[in-house]
Design brief:
Layout: E1 4-7, E2 10-13, H1 16-19, H2 24-27, H3 35-49, H4 79-119, H5 128-148, H6 159-185, H7 188-210, H8 216-232, H9 241-267, H10 272-293, H11 296-302, H12 309-336, H13 338-347, H14 349-360, H15 366-394
Antiparallel strand pairs: 1-2
Helix pairs in contact: 4-12, 4-13, 4-14, 4-15, 5-10, 5-12, 6-9, 6-10, 7-8, 7-9, 7-13, 8-15, 10-12, 12-13, 13-15
Length: about 400
């Protein structure tokens, strides 16, 4: 059927809308959301019935699931331009995540140092693990309060989800215990040397497990920082077999914790605040029995000088900082990867040493200044490597 037909009395014009209007029974079979397919069918029917009518190409292409996009009057956007903008956004997110993690980590160390310097003289030994439990409980209270106020949201506690997240906490507990044991059997400079070896192990694991690329400058940065740690420990390099065992165990637990944390943040279907909730609930459940067995809990209960408002407020504040540190750590691993997370952890020793000197009158030895200077150089090279990597990706 043609739109216009010539008769002896003249031309009769028929309405295209009426000519192509579907029957009622056909309309009942059309599902919602299929208007685009129906329009294409109508155009093919018109063309088949009258080959003299050319099918008009739509000015605007309707987007669909196969990647079609609306036509722009300014023409198609350059892939390089859109890719560059996305890469710049990713770089900004990585910088923010790294800054948040570094600030929270330094703040947490300073708060715990304040607690230790204020109260450790009142007891025989220390309460390191019990402090972690107190702060984990405070973090759970913070995230639950945020949920009750409607600021954040995550599902209720689920045992299956807890099972998936449990390896993160088990590796964290292993990292905590082996770190304390290594400090008991080795000097701080030697532990620092092995911490830098841990960073190299984490980088290799990131490359093998997640396919991360390793720049030459990244290898140089880690090598320089390791050399600086060795130079700082040159006057205190005694290592026993027991100390070496605990340091190697700490390297494996720390590297495994960071690498599995990246896997968990991707595989466990939780928001970041949900991860903070499970992380602290499981941490409290795993570590509290340890404090009962090693006597820390009984020491706290029998030391009346610790049962003060000041001690409770400082622990609550430490838990508040820990709440943000949990979120910042998870976000940093998700945004930047295990390698950058490990590098930031190493560089955090620089502001901690300087802030400890300014706030707590801690002495900074010549070896520490050497380590700080060389670590700054390593951090500078690592930053250049990451900037070059970002520039290369945005240019693709």
């Amino acid at each position: 059927m043609s739109i216009g037909t010539m008769s002896s009395t003249g031309m009769t014009v028929r309405s295209p809308s009426k000519a192509t209007q579907p029957q009622q029974h056909d309309m009942e079979d059309v599902e919602l959301g299929s208007s685009h397919a129906a329009a294409n069918t109508n155009r093919r029917n018109l063309k088949a019935k009258d080959s003299n009518i050319e099918e008009l190409t739509p000015l605007i292409t309707v987007g669909s699931g196969d990647g079609n996009k609306a036509a722009s009057p300014r023409g198609p956007m350059s892939p390089n331009a859109s890719g560059g903008a996305g890469e710049r956004s990713n770089i900004m997110k990585s910088v923010i995540a790294s800054t948040m993690y570094s600030g929270c980590s330094v703040g947490m160390v300073l708060v715990n140092k304040s607690l230790a310097s204020s109260y450790n003289h009142l007891i025989n030994g220390d309460l390191n693990i019990l402090l972690v439990v107190f702060q984990a409980i405070a973090a759970v209270i913070c995230v639950e309060f945020s949920k009750s106020m409607g600021w954040v949201d995550y599902p209720k506690f689920n045992f299956r989800t807890a099972q998936l997240w449990a390896p993160v906490n088990l590796l964290f507990c292993g990292m905590l215990f082996t770190g304390m044991a290594s400090l008991e059997h080795n000097s701080v400079p030697m532990v620092t040397v092995f911490k830098n070896i841990t960073n190299i192990m984490t980088t290799i694991g990131d490359c093998i497990l997640y396919g991360a690329s390793i720049e030459i400058l990244v290898i140089a940065a880690f090598g320089i920082m390791l050399a600086g740690a060795v130079m700082a420990a040159r006057n205190d390099a005694d290592v026993t077999q027991t100390g070496l065992f605990w340091m190697l165990a700490n390297c494996l637990c720390t590297s495994g914790y960071v690498l599995y944390l990246k896997y968990a943040t991707k595989s466990v279907k939780l928001s970041k605040f949900g991860m903070v909730f499970y992380n602290n609930v499981l941490c409290s459940a795993f570590l509290f029995p340890v404090t009962v067995m090693n006597g820390e809990f009984s020491t706290f209960m029998n030391t009346k000088a610790l049962h003060t408002v000041d001690y409770a407020v400082k622990n609550a504040f430490a838990g508040f900082v820990g709440f943000f540190l949990n979120f910042a750590s998870l976000n940093c691993v998700a945004q930047t990867g295990p390698t950058t997370y490990a590098m930031i952890g190493s560089l955090n020793k620089i502001p901690i040493a300087i802030m400890g000197y300014l706030i707590f009158d801690s002495t900074i030895s010549e070896e520490t200044w050497t380590f700080i200077s060389i670590s700054l150089l390593g951090g500078f090279l690592y930053t250049i490597a990451k900037l070059r990597e970002g520039t290369r990706k945005s240019g693709k």
